[in-house]
Specification:
The complex is a heterodimer. Chain A has a single domain, classed as Orthogonal Bundle (Arp2/3 complex 21 kDa subunit ARPC3). Chain A is mainly alpha-helical. Chain B is an alpha+beta fold. Among the domains of chain B are: about 110 residues, Beta Barrel (Thrombin, subunit H); about 90 residues, Thrombin, subunit H, CATH 2.40.10. In chain B, the strands form two sheets. Chain B has a six-stranded antiparallel β-barrel. In chain B, strand 6 and strand 7 form a beta hairpin. The chains are: A mainly alpha, B alpha+beta. The interface between A and B is large, with 57 and 62 residues.
Amino acid sequence: MNWVTFAIVAWICLGLETGLRDVLQLNPTAIAPSFVLPLMVFVAIWAPSGVAMAGAMLLGLLVDLTGPIATGADSRAVVAGPHALGYLGASVLILNVRGMVIRRNPVSVVALTVLAGIVSGIVVVALHTLRSMYDPMVWDASGQLLTRLASALYSGVTALALSLILFPALPLFAFATAQASAHTRGMRRHA
Amino acid sequence: MARHNSNLLTPRRALSASIAAALVLSVAPIRYTAWVGWFGDLATRLIAPISHPVLQLVRWVSPARVREDPPEQRLKLEDAARFQALYLRAARENAALRERVRDLQNGVALNPDPDVSLLTASVIGISTDLSRLLLRTRIGTEAGVQPRTVATVRGVQLLGRVVHAARGLSEIRPLTDDGADTVLGRVVLTEDGQGLLCTLEPDGAGNLRGAVEDPGQRPDLPAIEIEPGLLVRLDDDAWPRHAQMLELGRVTRVDRAEDQPLRRIITVRPAMDLSRVSDIELRITRALEGDG
């Protein structure tokens, strides 16, 4: 995979996520779609397994670094790891099922994004709930789980929009898999 | 030997080491992983060139809901509101100073009032965590911003407090965020700022909600019914003196408490949606704030 392309796209997706969150959020809840999750799914669908897992962990780590948790009314802390592990788990799941889906179909990206969001949400909530037992955290496990599951569903919308942009950009990622190469050759032939 | 050394750095081992590190960081107590915050600040600054323009575009397309007044009238109203807040604050400080004079006569030392300067900052992004809402600005410790620095909107509407400050970055939790603390306010009933005290907390819908003092317990106040439209100001010693009498919002609803029918519960809505503001003011004090 072209890591430079990946870094630039990840940078843009993370910026969109923080910039558009409040306007896309379903007030008064905190349910909001993710732009980073569909990117992780896209990479997991096309990249070799090791690259997909590494990319997922990197994206999850970035989400952790830009999403501090509340440790009090006037304090917060950055916890690295929960989203990295959540995205890793989701990418492993996608690696196991990607052979059963049509990779070039945006609907596949949507469905896998929702699935990935559910898996990563469960992992994140579990880890934060464990942490809340010994660290001062403002945390409501059941509420957070519902919020993240709903956000996973909502992320299907951003996944559809992003897939329309990412699929044509597939050659830029230079994924070293037979399917990606075949898809790129097909695009060039049609062009 | 070289072949043995190269086997130490296989991608599989690197991934395994990364997973182990992520597991350790995920469960390690926060007091041992505070250094991760530096990387968080760095990541936030790196994405600001994308998030800030996107946020500005969003604010331009869909600005925060404010009262519909003509621009000139709105400026005059804001000036009037600013001066009124200054007057009420001065009145409150006069009362506090009179009490201090009495204390001084009994030998209690005075604390100097810190100087306060207003620093305007643009919101460049919002935290990505779904559990809490934090507004981010590019101004940080280099400008004197510290944790618990007070933030306002348009000079008179209280926004919240800084929860994290680093060089070139600060994060503010709005009053109306679910994680924000309870605030004490005053439902203003007279022109000199007298009114009924209330205890407010976020209701999860962008408002503050809570019980108000029983008017029957305040014979010194005029018999004015609490109704929608009344202004509520901050009156909480947990906040700095320079923040007292800033606006919390206006009463939009008055209900009866279910367990105590004589007790009234008010809903207070800020002048604008605090989660969607684009420009804020940070009230920088010269000395460290000793109260609250």
